[in-house]
Structure formats: C-alpha cells, structure tokens
Amino acid sequence: MRFAPEYVTYVLNENFEDAKANFLSPLMALHYAHLVMLAERGIVSKSDAHAIREALDSVNQDEVRTVVYDGTYEDLFFYLDRLIINACGADVAGRLHTARSRNDIAMTTYRMRQRECLLDLLSATLDLRRSLLSLIAQHHDTVFAVHTHTQRAQPTTVAHYLLAVCEQVERDAVRLRGAYERTNFNPLGACAITGTGFDIDRTLTADLLGFAAPTRNTYGSIATADYLLESASATMVLVTGMGRFVQDLLLWSTAEFDYIRLGDGFVQGSSIMPQKRNPVALEHARVIGSKAVGQAQAVMTAVHNTPFGDINDTEDDLQPLVFSMFKDAIRAVRIVAAALRTAQFDAARLEARAGDGWTTLTELADTLVREQGIPFSAAHAISAKFVAARHDDPAKPLADILTEASAKVLPAPLTYSEDALERILSPRHFVLIRRTYGGPAPDETRNAASESQQRLDADLAWLAGAQDGLRGARQRLTERAAAL
Known about the structure:
By secondary structure, the protein is mainly α. It has helices at 5-22, 24-40, 46-57, 61-64, 76-88, 90-93, 102-138, 158-183, 202-208, 218-223, 226-252, 280-303, 319-340, 347-353, 361-372, 376-392, 398-407, 418-424, 427-432, 442-482; strands at 143-148, 151-157, 185-186, 213-214, 260-261, 344-345. The chain has 3 domains: 5-98, no CATH class; 103-353 and 447-482, Fumarase C, Chain A, domain 2 (Up-down Bundle); 361-425. Helix 7 packs antiparallel against helix 20 and helix 12 (280-303) runs antiparallel to helix 13.
C-alpha cells in the first residue's frame, strides 16, 4: 500500500514519532506478555515461541527510537512487525498476532502509559504536601489577615490557611488514585471488539503487564474513554486548585503585601531595575498549570460527541495531548513544591498588620453575645456603630465609644475597660478563641497537621505499593519470557 505524501507528512510521520516516544516500551512488553500467554495455552508451539522470543530480544529499542519514518509501513506496530519477521521469518512471526488486534493492543498500551503518568503526578502532589506540612509546622502561631471578596476579612494563622490548601491536595490524591485504579485494567484479549474463539488467558496477560485484572466487556474495552476522561478531570481539578493558591502566593509576594519571600533560586531580577525581585518561578507554575488545564479541556472536547466505538478521535492524534497534559501538570506541581521549601513568612510583620481594617470586629460581637446574653443581631448593630464612631473620632477611648454605641441599641449601655476591649479586639485573641474543629487555634491546627501527616504517610505507602506492583510484574514478565 502506498500512502499519499500529504498523509505521510501530516499524519503518519507525526504519529510514528509520538508512538516511539510514548508507546515503544509498553508495546514491547505487551508482545512478550502475549507470547508467554499463547505458549502457555498451547496456541503457539514451544519452538515457535522460542523463535519469536529471540526475535523480540533482537529488537534494540534505542535504535528504533532513531528510525526516520519512510512511509513504507503504517505505524510503529507494523515497523516492529517487520523487524520480527526479519528475525524469525513471516510464518513464525505471524503467529504472534494470533488472538489480538491493533485495537486491543493500542488500548492496552494507552492504559499502561497513562497509569505511569498518574503515578508520577500523584508523586508530585505528595512532594507538594511535604512542602506544605513543613511550612505548617513552622507557622501554627503566625497570625495574619485573610481576605474574602479581595477585602480584609478576619485573622487566622498561616498554618490554618496552608492546611486548607493541603487538604485540597489530599483530595486530589484521592481522585488520582481512583483514576489509577480504574485505568489499571487490561483490554488485551478483547481483540477488535468481540474477543476471540481461541482459548486465551486474559488474566495471565493482565498479571504479566501489572494490571489489576482484565477489563470485563470486550466491546467496552475498545470503546470506552471514561478512564481517560477521569484522569484528565482529576488533573484539571488539581492544577486549577493549585493555580488559585499560586495566585495568592504571587499577590503575597508583592511589595504592597510583603507576606512571603521566596529563596533567591526562585526569583529573577530586571535588566533595567536593580531593585526588582520577581517571583518568576511561581509565574511559570501558573502558566504551565494553565496549559495543563487547557490540554485537559482539549482532551474532553476531542472525545465529546464521538461514536461509542473504535475511532481515531481517541487514539493516535489524541494521546500526545494526554501526555503533554500530564507533563505540564507535573512540572507545575513540582516547581511550586520546590519554591515553597524556600518560602519565608515575617511573623512579626504579619501579626502587626493582622488587625488592620477591623478584622477582629466579629469577635467583639461574639463576646457581647457570650458575656451579655444579647442577640447576635443586636451585638452586630452595636459593633457596626462602634466602628462608625471610631472613624468619626479616632482619638476617643474605645470604652467610651462602646458605651455610647450600646446605649443606642440596648435599654442600658454596656461597660468594658479599655484593656478588656484591646484584648477582645487583638488578632491573637481572635485566633486563640476559635477552637472550632477545623479552626485556626494552634492546638487545633496541630491536630489537623498530624492527621494530614498520617494521610500523607498512607498515600506514600500506597504509591510505593503501586510502583512495586508494576516492578514485580516486569520482573515476572522477564522471567516468564526468558523461559520460552
């Protein structure tokens, strides 16, 4: 078959290069596993299996990666097929393709490659959580003001804020683990769409390739893309959430905020302004993460409204986008994790500014409710009048202002000392009294951090187990193939 030069240039050549980069190793492993199974079931004779195994052994993957596409074969599969035929002859080599199709071969290699990407991305999120927990441990008592609707809202602690980010990334790990678990099923043996009449052992090939089990329905093995979309979705949620955090970090790095300072290795100067200290690593993380979001959306769009079956829209041209999505997501997460390991907060400055803008006024209202037994609506009204009067006369004592404000709302005025009001309105008191489960009081954030560390340890153990499982499968495959 002669392919049109335009088809070669704009499609087949590109797909061949992508396949060499992403699928060569999975495809070779698949060949070995399928051969072991065919020999085990007696579908291929021992002598033919031995000859095919030696032909597979003769394939030098490094050399294959240097091959320039010449249009005399369709894709990487047929190029390897040519090498195997050259090594053991067409009659013997042709037996390797018994009970399989390029359909189930492709879907299997996609899942093999994707699960590696999911584990790499999960590993990056665990690195980010380590960095966050290290910072959290340093800042359980670091009080600062946080914002709602971009305006100063209330005091909390740096640890409390970072724990919110950490818990979000913990949920990302749950999503990535789920995506891995639903990706890690073996389509091999589904053949084109309906399986085969040969007595194959799909469980054996699943085991040798490190899958949890075979996929169930043979049509769905070829047609479904939900495992791919789930992975794209989990990745998009992760980098979107991290991007919001990065946006805060960039704002906090401005001279106007001056909340955080990154290490010198993550900033750049200016060619004209000597005073500049630009947090460019975070800017790169933001745009790289945005690229990953765009790529994830493109994956969804490419699959949307396509037929539920074997179709190119989910195959050769789409898969490189999947891997570039994972690559950029991993890059973004890794650079944020590394930058955070150098981050410094000025605790004294943050606490000194934490009460600016009446961020502690909620506690005045809460105190009046607790100590005076009045409705919160009345306490809220008193506090609002208290602030307005203070703006009108900044020099007037707080105690006098509260007495006058409460007299306008209650039958009898309230009396507090100046010292008592200063304590009630202090940012540190605001934080210390908020012992709500999940709140910012240091004892509570220490408990939360301990729980987060336990979850991190559990996720690290799960990741190690998954990686060990794949390594063990590779070892079993090597040993079984060598025995042919």
